[in-house]
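Thread: "does anyone have the structure for this chain?"

Original post by V.I.:
We have the sequence but no experimental structure in hand. Need at least a predicted one for the grant figures.
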Amino acid sequence: MIIYNVTCNIPETMEDEWLHWMKHEHIPEVIATEKFTGFKILKLLTVVDDNEGVNYAVQYFCQTLEDYEDYAENFAPALKAKTYKRYGDRVLAFRTLLEEV
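Reply from O.Q.:
Generated one for you, tokens below.
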């Protein structure tokens, strides 16, 4: 299994709105690409001294690396642009690709 992990830093004042948007708009759009079999939203509990805001990890699961690559090439650019248009630099995202072993 391949896990596409997106860790986001959100200002505390935007947390509820961002989480609602993720659950009701963004994640359904990602899942609608049919490249992922499921997802999880996790809130990071570890406190980092120099970190502002709150952090979430959103993990999307796919069966093959080819599914992820198709998503990254054909769907991700438009979804990232839509997210940036809505939040700009206020929400920072760090993306990683993992493989279950």
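V.I.: this helps a lot. The CA atoms of residues 7 and 94 lie 5 Å apart.
O.Q.: and The chain has a mean pLDDT of 94.
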